[in-house]
Amino acid sequence: MANVTELITNLETPTWLDTGDNAWQLTAASFVALQSVPGLCVLYAGLVKKKWAINSMFMAFYAFAMVLICWVIWAYKIAFGEYMLPFAGRPGPVLTMGETIVQSNLPSAALAQNFPQATMIYFQFVFAAITLVLVAGSFLARMNFTAWMVFVPLWLTFSYCVGAYSLWGGGFLFKLGVLDYSGGYVIHLSSGTAGFVGAWWIGPRLKSDRENFQPNNVVLMMVGAGILWIGWNGFNGGDPYSASPDAGVAVLNTNTAAAFSMLTWTTMDIIFYKKPSIIGAINGMITGLVVITPAAGFVAGWGAIVMGFCSGTIPWLSMNIAGKKWSLFTHHVDDCLGITHTHMVAGALGGFLTGLFATTTGVYAFGDAINGGAINGNGRQVWVQIVGALFIVGWNVVWTSLIMMFIKFVLRIPLRMTDEQCLIGDDAIHGEEAYCFSDDVSGLVPSLTTEMRANEKLAVLHGRDIEEGNNGHSSMHSPGKEDGSGDGEIKID
Predict the structure, then answer these.
(1) Does residue 63 contact residue 129 with C-beta atoms inside 8 Å?
(2) Rounded CA separation 432/50 (Å)
(3) What is the mean pLDDT of residues 47-76?
């Protein structure tokens, strides 16, 4: 009996469990999950043309679900499991109680956490999922949905997991000392690079869509942007793997950089276009969040402001000058939502600035032994950061291309929709429309008020009197026919 009681106690409240850390980690993971579903789902749905709202949401929704299944069957251990290669762990499932209820640990990195392995698995899943959702932003409005269904598990396995293991799981970049607090390289640089390369392989949208891609619902887009911003508190605040002082610093710096970047981007719009744009402000918010991600808990507050200024200017120039004038973007790479600029450019920028502004105090508070960045006399950190960026970019250029070629030439699945499907949009792909608030919807029954109003208009049109019918409906009769009979009756039921 004593052994049973001891076993129950060890399972309910083991000595290694910190309930505060576990609660915060699950909360942070839920914040990140909300960034994808519904955050980016509704952001994408509002930003694209009406005919692409469903397809855009569905690409994000599908990726979120597919990544989770792949994650628990084989992918988590590639990213965070035991050593197999300098850039990948040994694949395998994490589906037994014995694997999920025990204390979390990252074996290749020799790190342990004060919460269960299940919490770590879920926390890392939401990061993997949002990376694929970000990649989708480059492919919207023309990628064949079947090709996307195949692309997601392949890119997760051969690209995302490699970056995650190399930088976070104990791989060679981890050992080299590359700093990436919460995914500036693993998530944003990789998704931006994959989006850029994949957009080239898929081909462009229809010319008419490229010339006129008016957002169909800016209010809905703003809802998604708000969820994305606030959800980033979990994105960066959860990466110390504890409810630590550095988590608070990371959250504060995240919001500071995002706010300053948004204001800077808006100022740039006013200077060059003479008008402030809310869509531009959202882009500035996103680049600010991206640029601070690799540095969130490493830099001081003034460093977050400097990084916010850089993210509000350099990606702005990239998107509004290079993106609109370079033939590479105008004729060859159709990056639908500008993921190249907001994530690839901002992610690389953030990683580089981390090498400059990381403080020794912030790095030590995170639990790392690196002596900060160049600001603290560690100039080596700058070139280490550059090496990390070059690996992520190079790996993604090669593997995104290989995956696209495999889908196109081996599986014989077209990467792009037909022109006819591109012309029609959601109805051709899914047989559904995003907004059905109109009277011509099949099966729609008008309300009594609507019916009476219609009768009144018809009466005025035909010069007839209106009488209230016995059944509550309005009947219209020709003059002189009191009983409502005869050829002059018009009745809407």
Answers:
(1) yes
(2) 12
(3) 97
Neighbours of 444 (CB within 10 A): 10
Q: What is the pTM of this model?
A: 0.87
Radius of gyration of the chain (CA): 27
Residues contacting 243, CB < 8 A, separation 6+: 18, 20, 21, 23, 24
| Tokens standing for residue 94 | 């994490």
Chain centre distance of CA 486: 64
**What letter represents residue 44's amino acid?**
Y
Alpha helices in 48-141, H assignment, sequence order: 53-70, 76-80, 97-100, 117-139
Give the whole-angstrom CA distance, residue 85 versus residue 223: 42
pLDDT tens-digit series, residues 392-447? 999 999 999 999 999 999 999 999 999 999 999 999 999 998 987 655 555 555 55
Q: Which residue has the tokens 């500035």?
A: 284
- Give whole-number Cα distances, 350 to 170, 315, 340, 373, in Å: 22, 11, 14, 13
Q: Which of 77, 48, 78 is nearest to 60 (CA)?
A: 48
d(CA 88, CA 417): 34
Contacts of 170 (CB under 8 A, 6+ apart): 83, 89, 106, 107, 108, 109, 110, 111
The residue type found at 50 is K
Q: How far apart are the C-alpha atoms of 59 and 152, rounded to whole Å? A: 10
